[in-house]
Amino acid sequence: MKKAEFKLDTLTCPTCVKKIENSLNKTKGINSVRVLFNSSKVKVEFDENETNADKIGGVLLSLGFTVLSTKIT
Amino acid sequence: MLYINKYKNKITAISGILIVFGFITGAFGYINFKNALLILATVLAGIPIIIKAVQALRLKTFSIELLVSIAIIGAIYIQEFTESSVVSFLFLLGDYLEARTLEKTRSSLKTLIDMAPQEATVVRDGQTITIPAEEVEKGDRVVIKSGGKIPVDGSIVLGQASIIEAAITGESTPVFKEVNDKVFTGSIIDNGYIEIIAEKVGDDTTFAKIIELVEEAQESKSKTQKFLDKFANVYTPAIVLLAIIVFIITRDLRLSITFLVVACPGALVIGAPVSNVAGIGNGARNGVLIKGGEVMDKLSKVDVIVFDKTGTLTKGKPEVTDIKVFGDIGTDELLGLVAKAETISEHHLGQTIVKEAEKRNLDINNDSVSGEIIKGSGIKAVVDGRSVIAGNYKLMNNENIEMDDKVLQYATEREKEGNTAVYAAIDGQIKGIFSIADKIRDDALTSLKQLRKNGIKKFVMLTGDNRHTARLVSGKLGIDEFYAELLPDEKVEHIKKLKNKGHVVAMAGDGINDAPAIALADIGLAMGEGGTDVAMETADVVLMADKLIQFSHAYALSKATIRNIRQNTFFAVAVVIVLLAGVLSGNVHLASGMFIHEASVLLVILNAMRLIRFKSR
Questions:
Q1: Per the domain annotation, does B403 fall within a domain?
Q2: Do B106 and A18 touch (CB under 8 A)?
Q3: Which of B275, B292, B483, B491 could be stapled to B217 by a disulfide with Cβ–Cβ 3.0 to 4.6 Å?
């Protein structure tokens, strides 16, 4: 189990939060998703055997969000 | 897709220009040319909106973009190109302005994050190297020069400095620190030079924890917010449905799409969260961590505050408040002799006297001291060949030290004022009295006055200390009720009683001893150790600078924040009602409806921004 934190471009619409939560929750290997609307961050817990931070970043990108930085712990 | 997002601002600007040109050409009578320009503007500005709407729809979420998209397509269908282009342009412009202003309301947290140190100078294998702050490891020796930023939490091992700890405490006055003192990440060396050993690095530093706590707090939603979120979920599809019904009844497509646009729930949804974010941010910058919207709401309703005495209303550390000298001896000479004698004592009163001597830079070298501790009474010693006896009245009596009425009267007076009197006799003669007391915090009286002014009805003090001292402290501060000689579980009982009477109770106390009472109170407040993990986890409100005045700021701030949320909600509802009435009476059209809608969202954010600058003092 690993944790990743993605810093995104400023989130403005509260619907973005739903969008991110819904699609990441459907992504394989992801155990939990938390979107911090006000700090424009996405915190994800994932299984490193099934997916990786790059792939998750890719999902965010395909949803139309620019990932500014990624932190993995 | 990403491409469009990246150039959204440019797209907005171009479509705006196209619209202006469209109107100009229209004014000269080239109607076809005008329409072409306006259609182009609509398509350009409409694409990002429609894409977003579709994305959300694919995830089965109804978005505001969906409402707007339907309106744009509808407007093109009935060939109202002016309306369609203005609506799409205004929506994008609104989006841009929202992002800009939202950034501002979040800026107070950003200024905090910006205080994070970027790099560190460490000594490794005898070499001084500069590395990124996050690469510092536990145990590293870190060098910080004047003007530099402390990159990790640690203890000073060399040097001294005056340090500005605003990033942690919100206080901009520098504090002086020297060897063995702890320093915190994000503090700035105002003057001096220190070397420290890193103790907490990366995400474990107090600074990192504060940032995380504030981020989480800004995210945690109050009941009203949760309700509004749910409301928006139902509201948006309901509006689509209603618009269809309006169309079926009136057969007026223009009316139904106007209805769609003005009913967007913008200001209503964003009103409460922005106020909370701005309020919490203001607190964080002033050294008060308020843990979320729910806490903000409750804090504003508090009407009774319960204080622990020691360490909360008082400093928690006894100090020498006065030294009275009798006969032919200097104050420093007397203090020096007694302090030397007291170095062999473990008693806290003795230690207080030693500390006072250290503070006055007196020599307390105890090579020439021999003596004995008389348990529960004081100390008997020989210092530099002179006999020193220091202790309570009983000890003086037992040692047959003569004391006249003047001395005894003075001692009684001091004791009445809440001091403990320590008698000192040199060579068998009474020479002085040390008054020792746990002083009331300097800001206690002002803070309590401000709190009362802002709406606190009753102050209660609970203490384990004796009745006499409790009465004195509560009298000086104007506390309404006090209960002394209590055990921790008796404190809990008092909180329970107050809550049962229907009061909203805040409890301020020592984070460890008073933990159960703090947990039970509606609002728990940890004092005296703002930076510790326990305090930061258990309390609802954390005071980083250990100052009561911060509590009074937090209370005033919570009231202002809740007021702000009410204003925003009221305003948002009023705008929707006015707009709907305007649409139904035919006074508000698609473009003007969009304009008013976007303007109301911006006004709500601007109103919340006032909280960033809120000052209670």
A1: yes
A2: no
A3: B292
Residues contacting residue B472 through CB under 8 Å, at least 6 positions apart: B417, B418
Query: Would residue B110 count as lying in a domain?
Result: no
Q: Which domains does chain A possess? A: 2-72 (3.30.70.100)
- For residue A15, the chain B residue with the least C-alpha distance is B63
With an 8 Å Cβ cutoff, is A39 touching chain B?
yes
The reply to whether B492 and B562 lie within a common domain is no
B309 and B446 together in one domain: yes
Q: What is the mean pLDDT of residues B111-140?
A: 86
Say if residue B250 is in the same domain as residue B211: yes
Q: What percentage of chain B carries pLDDT values higher than 90?
A: 19
| Residue B534: pLDDT band with limits 50, 70, 90 | low
d(CA B218, CA B207): 17
Task: Label each residue of B305-347 as H, E or C.
Answer: EEEEHHHHHEEEEEEEEEEEECCCCCHHHHHHHHHHHHCCCCC
Answer whether B216's CB lies under 8 Å from B225's CB: no
The nearest alpha carbon in chain A to B5 belongs to: A64
Contacts of B443 (CB under 8 A, 6+ apart): B547, B548, B549
Residue in B196, B175, B180 with CA at minimum distance from that of residue B117? B196
Pick the catalytic residue from B297, B308, B438, B522: B308
Q: Of B390, B422, B439, which residue is a domain's last? A: B439
- Give me B176's structure tokens: 């002086």
The helix or strand, by DSSP H or E, that contains position B198, with its residue range, turns out to be: strand B188-200
* Within-domain flag for B47: yes
The answer to whether the beta carbons of residues B287 and B165 sit under 8 Å apart is no
Q: Over the stretch B402-418, which tens digit does the pLDDT of each residue have?
A: 888 888 899 888 888 87
Domain that holds residue B345: 316-439
Instruction: Look up residue B386 and give its amino acid.
Output: R
Complex ipTM: 0.74
3-class SS letters over B1-28:
CHHHHHCHHHHHHHHHHHHHHHHHHHHC
Domain-ending residue, one of B72, B105, B138: B105
Q: Considering only CB atoms, which chain A residues are within 8 Å of B103? A: 10
